[in-house]
Request: fold
Amino acid sequence: IRRAVIRGTGHYLPERVVENSWFEGKVDTNDEWIRSRTGIERRHFAAEGQMTSDLGIRAARAALDDAGMSADDIDAIVLATSTPDLTFPAVATMVQAGLGMTRGFAFDVQAVCAGFVFALANAEGLIRTEQAERVLVIGAETFSRILDWDDRSTSVLFGDGAGAVVLEAAEGQGTSDDRGILASDLNSDGQYRDLLYVDGGVSSTGTAGQLKMQGNLVFRHAVEKLAKTAHTALDKAGLTAEQVDWLVPHQANARIISATAQKMGLPMEKVVLTVSDHGNTSAASIPLALSVAAAEGRFKPGDVIVTEAIGGGLSWGSVVLRW
Ligand code: ACO
Reply:
């Protein structure tokens, strides 16, 4: 059967690094609170005029370099974001143009923090159904543009950045020993809209709006739903948690990540943790973590990697792959 194998990873983080202490004069908070409640120490913020597509293009170029490919080799771009440059066209088409690609196709996926997991599952579908041989899958966000700087309970949590992977079709045996994406599990439940949303948009206010979150409620859903979706995806792949080499979770909060790992029976040595340096970069956090860990040489060929994420919607899911 046709599998979708990761051939390269790359990422880009804006130059400007903002430490927790930066927020101390702006809202009633402190470095110790942010660190102990979230695990976040610093985040990157895009410069004025630097857009989601700019971050995406840089991450895409890095992933292509890593794969030893050029833009001409790519048939499709699937980009996950909730912070597009414009209402339309899709940021993916802006990345396409930025890479100098005039063939193939490109579109965005919107599932907030779960966006990269949804994009990866969709890209695998394109490869399986022979609509593409090679797909660039990107998560790119500029959440700094939708933060309420007067709200200490949300403004300290998010960062900007982009990550990308190159997927390529490869023949597999149809067993859990194959390299590539082995299984996915996607979920949404729109009745939880008010737990995490942006209070503006094209057809409502005509403005971009600001992020609103009931963090403690999202926290509870996260811990319960993330371990469950990861187990479901593992089950579909014919694998168990004991066979997992790496958990590469959405990086929202170190406490959610460690609680999920614990529920899955995974020691923290098997968890890729980047939230301290990146904050929550929404759809970019998983490809960023994949790219950072891959660059450090942490993944060996054949390793089983579980990605999982939850975000606005609520939407949540997991993709299991063999490196
Ligand atoms: N500094 C100091 N105090 C703060 C801050 C801050 N930055 N933020 C909140 N507090 C206060 C609150 O006001 C509250 O004070 P009170 O008791 O006087 O009312 C107290 O800290 C406790 O607040 P909680 O919200 O209960 O704190 P909690 O331990 O739950 O941590 C947090 C808050 C970090 C937001 C946590 O709930 C969380 O991480 N939630 C999940 C976030 C998440 O995963 N989002 C999903 C993905 S994001 C996406 O899809 C875009």
